[in-house]
Write a structure and sequence with these properties.
Blueprint: E1 3-9, H1 12-22, E2 27-34, E3 44-45, H2 53-62, E4 67-70, H3 73-77, H4 80-86, E5 91-92, H5 100-103, H6 105-114, E6 122-125, H7 128-138, E7 142-146, E8 155-158, H8 161-173, E9 182-186, E10 192-200, E11 203-206, E12 211-212, E13 215-217, E14 221-224, E15 229-232, H9 239-259, E16 265-275, E17 278-285, H10 292-299, H11 304-313, E18 325-333, H12 349-359, E19 361-365, E20 368-371, E21 374-377, E22 381-389, H13 392-406, E23 411-412
Parallel strand pairs: 1-2, 1-4, 2-3, 4-5
Antiparallel strand pairs: 6-9, 7-8, 7-9, 10-11, 10-16, 12-15, 13-14, 15-18, 16-17, 18-22, 18-23, 19-22, 20-21
Helix pairs in contact: 1-10, 7-8
The structure holds adenosine monophosphate and glycine.
Length: 424
């Protein structure tokens, strides 16, 4: 086959999706919309934004695109899948209705409650007085979540009543993120892990699990970010717990979506926590995780495009995995996740890219640009260096050897990715 594939998005995740797509024996051309200058070194980037759905439809038709893969949630919530399907174009991602599993915490929580999918107990409030009363009855620690998009700042894990009350006031009285609802939920304790699955209606094909590091600085300090690094495998999570999560969470969720009239196709991402009573859901996403994808797709041995096409055709299959460990370290712009300067030179990219294969590293571009032949930062997360090794310790060593050569005054990275999972 000679398939043309279109990938929507512009970050390290989409670079990894394109990189994996390029290994498929079925593929002839790969386009990324809009991509970034780093992705453009190896793939054809086209200048159409993720949410410009009509232009993307036109491009897909004119260029005989056989399959479109969607990266970011914004495109999904904008209804890109609905429009592509209406136009008879093959696309891998959930409809706008199914993407609510990520877009609306209330939708996700009510689905889990109704179908008995293990998650924290919760209640939804739009009124401060009622919320406060519930808070007082439950006590702390407790978790308060704004129901909607809040740029990663909508979750407060409150250890004290003052902290919890302040969060409620900001969200329900001062409308810090707009006028909306709040989910108050039980605090869960245990190690977290990310379990993604290729899903089409009731069929669920789990990917290897990964762990993400969300805080900006070493030792899990500092503000929450999109993710400062990830690794796979995750030794602290036993395979029995993963199997349990697939059987008690991922498969029942796919079935529930079908039953409730919002069947899910695409990547279902479970942000899970392994509690003393088994795995429970913290959140669902309706797409590939970032930066988990940058380590999980390299670990995948099977042809991803073949897997997706067979899945959409309802064929049975099993996914194969490499034995190796993969560990990714994100280089971010100083100041991220708040404000940061753009356009500052990063040295060493060309040299490190040339060494890649020999040194057991893969370099994905999250937010770079090329200006007058020089690489500069053009986003919060700039690069992710993925180390490959027979053990996590070796994967980490390979990642950090390269990371050090790319660092600059304007970039920072965590030095403890993999953390306690790795015994040296
Ligand atoms: P979320 O945006 O829902 O993924 O939450 C962000 C982070 O807050 C998670 O990765 C957890 O570390 C933490 N968190 C969210 N919900 C809970 C909970 N119910 N119990 C404990 N920690 C939580
Ligand atoms: N790494 C978490 C996410 O993609 O939302």
């Amino acid at each position: 086959m000679n398939l043309n594939i279109l990938i929507i998005g512009r970050g390290g995740r989409e670079h990894a999706i394109a990189w994996k797509t390029a290994q498929s024996k079925l593929v002839s051309k790969i386009f990324v919309a809009p991509g970034n200058d780093g992705i453009a070194e190896s793939f054809t980037c086209i200048n159409i934004n993720e949410t410009d759905t009509e232009q993307l439809v036109r491009f897909a038709k004119e260029n005989n695109i056989h399959l479109t893969i969607v990266g970011p949630e914004a495109a999904l919530m904008n209804g890109i899948v609905d429009l592509f399907q209406k136009e008879g174009l093959k696309i891998f991602g959930p409809t706008k209705a199914a993407a609510q599993i990520e877009g609306s915490k209330q939708f996700a929580k009510e689905l889990m409650q109704k179908h008995r999918i293990p998650t924290a107990d919760f209640q939804v409030f739009d009124n401060y007085a009622n919320a406060k009363q519930y808070l007082l009855a439950k006590g702390t620690p407790i978790v308060i979540k704004y129901d909607g998009l809040a740029a990663g700042k909508g979750v407060v894990v409150a250890m004290s009543m003052e902290e919890a009350d302040q969060a409620l006031q900001e969200m329900l009285l001062k409308n810090r993120f707009g006028k909306g609802k709040v989910v108050i939920e039980e605090f869960l304790a245990g190690p977290e892990f990310s379990l993604m699955a290729f899903v089409h209606n009731e069929t669920v094909l789990p990917l290897a699990i990964a762990q993400d590091h969300k805080r900006a600085f070493d030792g899990d300090r500092g503000p929450n970010t999109g993710g400062m690094g990830a690794y796979t495998p995750v030794p602290i999570i036993p395979q029995t717990a993963v199997d349990d999560a697939v059987n008690s969470i991922m498969i029942p969720t796919a079935k529930a979506m079908v039953e409730d009239g919002t069947p899910f196709t695409g990547i279902l991402y479970g942000g899970l926590i392994l509690t003393k009573t088994g795995p429970k859901v913290i959140e669902f996403n309706a797409r590939f995780g970032d930066p988990e994808t940058e380590v999980v797709l390299p670990k995948m041995k099977s042809d991803m495009i073949e897997v997706i096409l067979k899945l959409l055709d309802g064929e049975e299959q099993t996914i194969e995995w490499h034995e190796n460990a993969f560990l990714g370290v994100v280089l971010a712009s100083k100041g991220y996740p708040e404000s940061f300067e753009k356009g500052i030179e990063i040295k060493g990219i060309e040299a490190e890219s040339r060494k890649q294969k020999a040194e057991n590293v893969i370099l994905f571009h999250c937010g770079t640009a090329k200006k007058e032949e020089k690489w500069v930062n053009n986003g919060g997360r700039v690069l992710i260096v993925v180390g490959v090794g027979d053990t996590l310790a070796n994967a980490r060593k390979n990642a950090y050897l390269t990371t050090e050569n790319l660092s600059s005054d304007n970039l920072f990275y965590r030095t403890d990715i993999g953390g306690q999972a790795i015994e040296n």
